[in-house]
Amino acid sequence: MHELSITQSILNIVNEHAQRAGAAKVTTINLTVGELTGFVDDSLQFYFEMLSPGTLAEGARLNITRVPATVRCRACGSEFHLEGLQWICPQCQAVGGDVLRGREFQVESIEVVQGEAK
Amino acid sequence: MKVSVVQGILSANDQLAAENRDQLRRHGICTINIMASPGSGKTSLILRTLEGLAGRQRVGVVEGDIASTVDADRVAACGVPVVQINTGGQCHLDAPMMRKALGQLPLEQLDLILVENVGNLICPVDFKLGEDLNVMIASVPEGDDKPYKYPGIFLAVDAVVINKVDLLPYVHFDMAAFRKLVSGMNPDVCLFEVSCETGQGIDEWVAWIIEQREKRRRT
Fold first, then answer.
1. Taking CB atoms and an 8 Å limit, are B9 and A86 in contact across chains?
2. Nearest to B150 by CA among B141, B137, B163
3. pLDDT computed for residue B219 by the predictor
4. A6: which chain B residues are within 8 Å (Cβ-Cβ)?
5. Which fold has domain B11-218?
6. What is the ipTM of this complex?
7. Which positions ≥6 away from A18 have C-beta within 8 Å?
8. Testing the interface with A: which of B6, B7, B66 to mutate, by most A Cβ within 10 A?
9. Whole-model pTM?
């Protein structure tokens, strides 16, 4: 996947908000990532360490909340987790369903220390 | 101190894509983003589509590839305006690349733009370009289990073109199961069975494009 450009986007968002908040340093970045986004945590960590030095986010901890892929069956209405991405309702065996959760991909919040940037 | 952000990670791309879309709409252009794996027949489908649309719609093409101009050369031979984007290794097109390509097309003379995205079933899905419609090609030799492996793309598209149906007698591909699964995941999707080799099913696909374009012209 394209984790390099994604990590750069995350950094841009984080640094912009940190600056606006008058932060000296970002300590934690809270991300929400849905299971259906195909996003790889390890690569993000790798690129983050490569791209963040020299920015307010240098040394920040990446806190990634994974959202399981949840689907609602169109036949019986029950909600189920896409186990191994199998699109079959465990209640009634119908194929498919509407995605309720699992496509999230956002920066939720950051934790910062305020003061003059070094 | 905690600072609330709540911002989509791809929001910068989304923003630029929305600007591209506004620009295209102002020109009354319907834009179709075509995604598929390498070798599924993206360029072949575009060539067949150009044949079918010749004299009926004025079409421009954006060709995305990691490198080379072979696809763009084949399209240019049809006499339509074409822009090649070489992503230089990037696995998908994005809104800034699209913006650049639009600057090189005669927008006031076009009704439709077909975009051939980079051959890949994962990355192009997340990056909006400013398109009206997303289409994927699933070719018969790739197998009927692709929706399980790449749900993202099947959820994101308006139409799935099942290409290479002339090979159905030779490879295992359960068309009924494939259709059932795709429709189950995405009930609004339109499915087309075509062969770019024999021309089978192309008329129906071309008619759908014209219908989509006309629908947008009226609104």
1. no
2. B137
3. 58
4. 9-10
5. Rossmann fold (3.40.50)
6. 0.84
7. A26, A56, A57, A110, A112, B3
8. B7
9. 0.91
